[in-house]
Amino acid sequence: MTDSDYVVLEGLPTPQVYHDLRKLSGMTPPPLEAVPKSLANSFCCILAYERKHMLDDVTPGVEQTAVAMGRLLGDGALFLQLCDVAVHPDHQRRGLGKRIMQRLVDYVDDNAPHAYVSLVAEPKAQKLYPLYGFKDVAPSVGMFRMIRGRRVQDEPAQKGA
């Protein structure tokens, strides 16, 4: 397949497609019940579809699902987070991640040019993001907090517990 075999559009996936694309691409699948609210609060979402199933240049077929996605979250002006860049394994290595990244960066430049855009890069994607101007935050350190699915590790056992 070539670049012209796909259509890249702004839009939101269904919660199930979002969940499945994350899971299939090796990312942690989120709790499905939290996905609708999360998607509704997106600043921008970009999806890729196979052209052969499109009804026209901007309308996916009825049964068609996105094969790749990427999202921006944030306040829409000063602080944004780029997340969920995921490509279905059957469609990887065809430039879809790069096309989605370019659309997201263009969206930021057009709609929030003063924004500080952050992201957390999975090891296999760490070479992609510098192509779009992203830099390591060193000497700062990225951090996270997540209760869902967290396994307590590297914490000393409490006496008497």
TrEMBL record:
Family annotation (InterPro entries): Acetyltransferase_Butenolide, Acyl_CoA_acyltransferase, GNAT_dom
GO molecular function, one term: acyltransferase activity, transferring groups other than amino-acyl groups
GO BP of this protein: UDP-N-acetylglucosamine biosynthetic process
Residue ranges of every copy of the N-acetyltransferase domain listed in the record: 22-151
Name of protein: N-acetyltransferase domain-containing protein
